[in-house]
Amino acid sequence: MDTSKLVPHDPRVREETAEIRGKTYSYIIGEPKNQQPIDTVFLIHGWPDLNFGWRCQIPFLMSLGFRVVAPSMVGYAGTSRPEDLKQWSFKSVAADIRALATKFVGEDGQIILGGHDWGGAVVWRVALWHPKLIKAVFSVCTPFHAPNPNWVSLEDHLAAGRLENFRYQLQLAGPDVEEGLQTEQRIHQFLNGMFGGRGPNGEYGFTTSGGAQFDNLALLGPSPLLSREEVDYYAAQYMLQPSPPMRGPLNWYRTRRINYEEEVELAGSFTQVEPPALFIAATKDAALPPAMSSGMEKYFKDLTRGEVEATHWALVEATEQVNNQIVEWLAKVLPDGTIKAAL
Predict the structure, then answer these.
(1) Which listed residue, 8, 74, 227, 302, has the most CB atoms within 10 A of its CB?
(2) Helices 90-105 and 256-269 meet at what angle, rounded to 10?
(3) Domain positions in the chain
C-alpha cells in the first residue's frame, strides 16, 4: 500500500460526518484494502492543527492493517461550534470520542487512541474517564499531568515562576487572536509562522512568551514544514467555521477552570492510568519541553517512553522516527503476532 502522506481530499481515505451527543463531528476514516481491520486507531489533533495534521501517520497505520479515524475536533472545520464552553471540556470531549468510537467498535469494543498537542491532553483524559474503551493510548509531545485537587490559575502559576512556556496561552484565551485572525489571508500568514516561517531578519510569527506577533505576520516567508497547497488547505478549513473562524479552536484555551471543576472527582480517586501507554517527547519543543514529563511513570501501570529530535511539529518533522516508535510499541502491547501478521 502507498504510505506517502495524505494530500487534501486524498482518495485513499473518506471524509464523513456523524451526529454525536447533539453535535456534528467531521472525521477522516481510512481502512486497509482487501482485509478486515486488525484494530481501530483514533488520532486526535491539537491547535492550530487539523485532523490532516496526522497525514503522515494515517497511511502508515492503514498499511499495517488498522482502521484509522481522525476526528476534526469540536470547533474546527466541519465539526460543530457549540455556544456552551463546557462542550470543550476534557470530560465532554472524552464522552464525544467514546460515542464516536462505538459507531465502529460497538458499545463494548476498544480502540487504540493517539493524540498530539491538545489531542495529547485529551487522550490522557479519555483514559481516565473511559478506561475500558482504551486498549492502548499514546501521546506525541504532550505529557500527562494528574488531576489537581486544588485550583491554581495560569496567572498564579506564572506569578510563582512556573509554566513560562505557557504564557502565550493568556493571549490565546483572550480576544486579541480571535479578533486579529478573521480573513483567510491573515490566517494563512499566521499558519506560516506557526509552522516555522520566518521574516527576512529572522522575525517570528509566534513565541511561547508573547503568543502571536501580529506586526510580523506580513513579513513571514513560507513554512518549511508545510507546502503551499497544505497551508492553503489549512486556511480554507478554518474559514469553514462561522465568523470569527478562530473562536472554536481558541475555546480550547478557555476551559481551564471548567476542567478543574469537572475533574475534582477524578482527583480524589485517581491512582494510575490503566491501559498500556506511550509518550514520545520532542527534544526541541518550546511549548511542551520534555522536562515537563519528569516523574510521569508513577501515574502509569505500563508506560513506554520515546523521544525524537524535533520541534513541536514532530508528526511531520520526524515522521519516520515517530511512526517507528509507535509501531514498535504497538507490537509490544498488542497480542503476539498482530503487527507481524499485518506486515
Answers:
(1) 74
(2) 70
(3) 14-342
Separation between Cα atoms, residue 44 and residue 90, nearest integer Å: 12
Give the pLDDT confidence score for residue 240 in this predicted structure.
94
| pLDDT tens digits, one per residue of 86-108 | 999 999 999 999 999 999 999 99
**Neighbour tally for 156: CB within 10 Å:** 11
> Which residue bears the cell 503568543?
211
- 266's CB contacts (< 8 A; 6+ apart) are 128, 129, 147
End-to-end CA distance of the chain: 11
**CATH (one of 3.30.565.10, 3.10.20.520, 3.40.50.1820, 3.90.230.10) for 14-342:** 3.40.50.1820
CA distances (Å), origin 230, targets 6, 62, 284, 291 = 10, 21, 23, 31
Q: Is the dihedral of CA 213, 166, 26, 233 positive or negative?
A: positive
C-alpha cell at 118: 491538545
pLDDT, residue 1, reads 82
Secondary structure E strands in the chain = 14-20, 23-30, 39-44, 66-71, 111-116, 134-140, 206-207, 211-212, 277-282, 303-308
pLDDT digits (tens, 9 = 90+) for 278-312: 999 999 999 999 999 999 999 999 999 999 999 99
Burial bucket for residue 199 (CB in 10 Å: 0-12, 13-18, 19+): middle
- What single-letter amino acid sits at 131? P
pTM of the model: 0.97
Catalytic machinery residues: 117, 312
Q: What is the DSSP string of 245-311?
A: TTHHHHGGGS-HHHHHHHHHHHHHH---B-S-EEEEEETT-SSS-GGGGTTGGGGBSSEEEEEES--
User: In the prediction, which pLDDT does 337 show?
Assistant: 66
Quote the pLDDT of residue 338: 75
Distance CA 186, CA 192 (A): 10
